[in-house]
Structures are given as structure tokens and as C-alpha cells.
Amino acid sequence: MIRVGVIGVGLQGQTHLKCYKALSEVEVAAIADVNEERLREVGDRYCIPGRYTDYREMLEKERLDAVSVVTPDPLHRDPVMACAQAKVHILCEKPLATTVEDAEAMVRAARSAGVKLMVNFSNRWMSYMAMTKKAIEDGELGEPLYAYARLSNTIYVPTGMLKAWASRTKLPFWLMSHTVDRVRWLFGGKAVRVYSVARSKVLKGMGIDTPDFYAALVEFDNGIVGNFESCWVLPDTRPSIVDSKMELVFTKGNVSIDAQQTMIQKATESSYTVPGTLFADIYGRPVGFVAEAIRHFVECVREDKEPWASGEDGLEVVRTCAAIVESAEAGRPVELP
After folding, report:
1. Quick one: which H or E segment has residue 253?
2. How far is the C-alpha of 56 from the C-alpha of 254, rounded, in Å?
3. What is the pLDDT of residue 103?
4. Which of 195, 220, 196 is nearest to 143 (CA)?
5. Does pTM top 0.85 for this prediction?
6. What's the rounded mean pLDDT across residues 48-72?
7. Which residue of 74, 110, 278, 314 pairs with 119 in a disulfide if CB–CB is 3.0 to 4.6 A?
8. Distances (CA, A) of 237 to 130, 233, 244
9. What is the per-residue pLDDT for 277?
10. Chain centroid to CA 18
11. Over residues 293-320, mean pLDDT
12. Buried b (16+ CB within 10 A) or exposed e, 53-88
């Protein structure tokens, strides 16, 4: 049995719990969260024996093999460093960090401690991403040339879901970390030059100090170009809080992806929705890309394998996303070392 703990049991932290609880080889031994009411509620719901308001106390008192760090974007460094010091394997939610300095320190700490550090780039386990990856590796499409990737949210996300800390992150970390990783994973290469723009109007007028959207052109060292776009002020009247599309161009073909083209559209007397099918509960069991990413992490811990989405991958994505933020703020292109 793999004994795991979860640090941060908000919305995504509870998703980690649900996925761990569905694995017969995993025992969820403890959870930690600064919110005592949430800690009690989630602990009761998932029958978790160990409950701590201080993750350091959890790491000291519990015998754990692995821990998920699912705190807000800018609060990953300290718990990851503590987990590395405690010699437990780490699954950290994306982004790995919101500064290059933090990401570098986390990767060094995990490497020095000899523990696995996986960044939860769960999009790699989406069915259409896996099919695209295989088509590339089989040579069906030729060489990659260009990628357009859009990942946006409705305004509910910064004003509701993340209201407590939306102003402490930016879209390149919250959303583009997914799309930058997708393109890196599919096409290879490291970002070498970034030019981006951003605008602040809607959220700023609501007292939330973070840009409404970013648009970025990223050149990679293997010659490909990525065009990344993220916005989180789309109207709540949209049928889904996520808008995700990709267009991938190769020397011998192309791939078009629309994540909202699901198999079900639901209309009631009061609403029209497009329920996501990439991750769902099927008869009480979580299935889909997030569950598969967490299953992969557990497998790597059990079988002593290196995770597909490593800390080094997370660091490269942070470097790119930080350059996107810097370019937008400076109003000029940014060269990456």
C-alpha cells in the first residue's frame, strides 16, 4: 500500500482525494489545510483519519510515501520543500511555481533529497492528446511547424472559484501552463524568445488586480512557433466555464482539437450546458485525464519509475510563462537563456 497525504483540500485538492480513494493500492492517511471547517468537512466526507492545519506537523507525525501539494498557485514552494526534506515523493499541481527562482529551488530540493517530483500536467492524459502524440511518433503528420492553443475561462473563475487569490496569480501560470506544456510535450524544444501582450480592464474595475487576457507568440529552439491565448472574463452565460481549442500544423498534415465538442449537450427548463466528458464520475468512480495522471504518479512511486511530467518539465514551463508575463509588462520581446 502507498500511504499518501494531500496538502490543500479545496476544489482541486478534493479531486486528488477522490482519485486516490478510487485506487485499491493507495491509503489516504492524512490531509492538511489551514481552513479548519473545510478540513473537518472534507475529512468526514472522505473518511480521512489524519487531519492537520499545519502540513509540517502532518509530515512529522504521519508515515507517508507521497504527498499531493494542491495549494494556490503562488503557495507551492514551501510545502514542496518541506516534503522533499521529509523524503516523501511529491505530486505538485501546475504551475510548479509562479517565479523561476521558486521553481529552481523546488527542483533542486527534490533532486537533492532523491524523491520524485511530478507536476500535474494532467492534460497529457487527455484522450485526444494521447492520440495526437501517437500520430506524431508514428510519423503520420511529418515535422511540427506551428501550434495555436487557446485555453480560457468564464469570469466565474477569477470572481468566484479563485476569488480569494485570483489577484495573486496571472493567466500564463493559471491556464497557459497547460497549453505551453502541451506544445512542449507534443513538439519538443525549449522556448527561446517570447513576445506577449495583456490588457487589464474588466477585473481591474472589480478590484481584482490581474490582467483579463494574454496573447503570446513563443519561438522554440527547434524552429516551431506557438501562439498562446488565454482569457478569463468570458461571460457566465456560456455553456461551459472552459473554452479550449488547438490547431497543430505539420509538414504533412494538421490536427484540430475542440475540447468542447463533447458527446452530450444538456438542456433543462432553466439552463443549457455542455457537460465535460474528459473527466467525470462513472457510477461513483472518477475516470478521465486527471484520474489517469494521478494513477501514473502512484505507479511511479510503487515501481520506482520517473514521472512523465517531471519537475524539470515544470521548471521549463515556469520559465516560459514568467517570460510571457515579463514581456507583456515590459512591452517588448524577451529572450530566454
Report:
1. strand 253-258
2. 48
3. 98
4. 220
5. yes
6. 98
7. 314
8. 31, 11, 16
9. 58
10. 17
11. 97
12. eebbebbeebebbbbbbbbbbbbbbebbbbbbebeb
What are the structural domains, with CATH classification, of the chain? 2-121+294-308 (3.40.50.720), 124-279+316-335 (3.30.360.10)
Instruction: Provide the CA 221 distance to its chain's centre, in angstroms.
Output: 24
Lowest mean pLDDT among 86-90, 161-165, 285-289: 285-289
Cα–Cα distance measured from residue 35 to residue 47, given in angstroms and rounded to the nearest whole number = 17
Cα–Cα distance for residue pair 94/318, rounded to 1 Å = 9
CA distance 13 to 290: 12
* Displacement of CA 215 from its chain's centroid (Å): 19
Residue type, 304: D
Per DSSP, what are the bridge partners of residue 197?
Answer: 215
Going by C-beta distance under 8 Å and a sequence separation of 6 or more, which residues neighbour residue 212? Answer: 198, 199, 200, 201, 202, 203, 204, 231, 232, 233
Q: Alpha helix locations (H) across the chain? A: 11-21, 36-46, 55-61, 77-85, 100-113, 127-137, 156, 171-174, 176-187, 202-205, 289-303, 311-330
Predicted pLDDT of residue 174: 98
> In a 10 Å sphere around its CB, with 0-12 CB exposed, 13-18 middle and 19+ buried, how is residue 120 labelled?
buried
Q: CB neighbours (10 Å) of residue 8?
A: 25
Q: What 3-state class would DSSP assign to 57?
A: helix
Q: 292: which residues sit within 8 A by CB, 6+ positions away?
A: 122, 125
Q: Which cell numbers in the block locate residue 7?
A: 496538502
Q: In degrees, to the nearest 5, what angle opens at C-alpha 333 toward C-alphas 309 and 106? A: 30
Phi, psi dihedral angles at 251 (to 5 degrees): -70, -20
Q: What angle do CA 184, 187, 191 make, to 5 degrees?
A: 45
Q: Residue 146's closest CA among 253, 247, 258?
A: 247
Contact call for residues 110 and 217 (beta carbons, < 8 A): no
Is residue 192 left, alpha or beta, with left meaning phi > 0 and alpha meaning psi from -120 to 50? Answer: alpha
- Here the cell at position 161 is 472559484
For residue 322, which phi and psi values (nearest 5 degrees)? -65, -35
